[in-house]
Design a protein that fits this description.
The chain is an alpha/beta fold. It is built from ten helices and eight strands. The protein has a single domain, classed as Rossmann fold, CATH 3.40.50.11240.
């Protein structure tokens, strides 16, 4: 019969496992309940997640940071009026505000891609991570001859709003960088959703997603590599989403 681990042995085991994951495992208990320390940590993480959902996006600061990347910046809004409406009416977050179309069509051209940055469910995520990822990816895209549309910042936008923006600007591909739903271990995770030839008929099955973009998740350099690789594959094959297999992880592993 296997001898059960002693208290010290069990503690060492959990300590070694915690180095492999940010998940909360082997939490101390007091009777049938969590010990005070872990309980307070979970409550703090929950409060940070709630704050992340309601935090506003500093569009002026983001626009100034994007302007450094050598491209014009447009700011529009979805059909949502406030954060409460954003949470209650996802459908309105997918539609542009009435005045947005005029702002976009005035900059219409022949572009290969438009980068859309929206607060989503974590404004802090895009505020922190969007520009560092773009600064790496844009250098490669411009070297490859991609025609970049003006950057578009969207208040209260959902992923699908990138379809309407790409159509209005005349872009072949949309890359929507958006704050993801905060969790108890990551209130600042950003996602990038890539769509080839988006339109009103586009569905989520037509998109490729790079999720968990943050230094503690998929780092900036790796995220930019995946983004550029996927875009190159989309342009070469003329498709995206479930019809396009993402091989970037295999390439990343092979380069390390």
């Amino acid at each position: 019969m296997t001898k059960p681990p002693t208290t010290s042995e069990g503690g060492a085991l959990w300590t070694s496992l915690r180095k492999l994951t940010p998940a909360r495992i082997g939490l101390k208990r007091s009777g049938a309940s969590l010990a005070t320390g872990p309980l307070l940590e979970i409550q703090l993480a929950h409060a940070r997640a709630r704050d992340a959902v309601h935090a506003p996006l500093d569009t002026q600061r983001l626009a100034a940071e994007l302007a450094v990347l050598d491209g014009p910046v447009l700011t529009v809004a979805s059909a949502v009026e406030d954060k409460a409406g954003y949470l209650m009416r996802p459908d309105l977050g997918r539609k542009l505000a009435p005045d947005a179309d005029g702002i976009l069509t005035s900059s219409r051209g022949q572009y290969d891609i438009v980068f859309v940055i929206s607060d989503g469910l974590s404004a802090g995520a895009v505020q922190t991570h969007a520009v560092p990822v773009l600064s790496i990816a844009l250098a490669d895209l411009r070297t490859q001859g991609w025609r970049i549309a003006p950057f578009v910042i969207v208040h209260h936008g959902r992923v699908a709003i990138g379809d309407a923006i790409a159509t209005a600007l005349g872009a072949t591909c949309a890359a929507v960088m958006i704050g993801e739903r905060p969790g108890l271990s990551a209130p600042d995770s950003m996602g990038a959703y890539l769509t080839w030839q988006p339109s009103a008929q586009t569905s989520d099955a037509d998109r490729n997603c790079i999720s968990n973009i943050r230094p503690a998740g998929i780092g900036y350099a790796d995220s930019a590599f995946k983004l550029v690789h996927l875009l190159a594959a989309m342009r070469a094959k003329g498709r995206s989403g479930v019809q396009l297999k993402d091989l970037s992880d295999r390439l990343l592993i092979g380069s390390k």
